[in-house]
Amino acid sequence: MKSATGVDISKNKTVLWKLRESIERARHELNTKDVVEIKVTAENKEYKYPMTKAKLEELIEKLMARAAETCERALKDSGLEKNAIEEVILIGDMTDSNKVYEIIKKIFGKTPRQVPSQENIVSFGAAIEGGILSGIVKEKLALDVTPHTLSAEITNFQNHLLIPRNSVIPAQKDIVICL
């Protein structure tokens, strides 16, 4: 915005918050429209910026590639073939994006389900987990795993692997370090 208008809003939290809201609204609208306007008022003047679906997709291209890599890695790590996955449920803010929908459909070979109420699906998962932990649900198994490798820096920027990625948690590792 500063380069386009000369107005620096980086320290004005209210304007930044309103700009973020306008961008979120525009992102949602771009699912059904080709062009929308992002509007923000700063220093008693309203600024308008056109945003196209193509420009948005260009801006999020790297993020979408990372998301695709994550899905493919999760599928590989699970040891399952994509035809063994019964259903893919999209939860989260960006999952209403047509681009996310297309990527998931391409990776898993099936139409993902978009949940109108994300809270309900999270509650459903929590209820299943509670049933498993209490012993009421016996035919399902749910394991929590760490998505990242956890390590500790010992000395001279050398890391010692403690818990590998995809380890069931809670996990524990005891090591003795002699310096």
The main β sheet shows up as:
2 strands, antiparallel
> Under the CATH scheme, which class of the largest domain?
Alpha Beta
The name of the CATH topology of the largest domain is: Actin, Chain A, domain 4
Shape: extended
Order of helices and strands: HHEEHHEHEHEE
Structural class: alpha+beta
Uncertain ranges = none
Question: What does the model show?
Answer:
- By secondary structure, the chain is an alpha+beta fold.
- It is 41% helix and 18% strand.
- The protein has three domains: 2-59, Actin, Chain A, domain 4; 61-115; 143-179, no CATH class.
- It contains six helices and six strands; from the N terminus they run ααββααβαβαββ.
- The model has no long low-confidence stretch (mean pLDDT 85).
- Strand 3 (89-90), helix 5 and strand 4 (113-114) form a beta-alpha-beta unit.
- The protein starts with a helix and ends in a 16-residue tail after the last strand.
- It is extended.
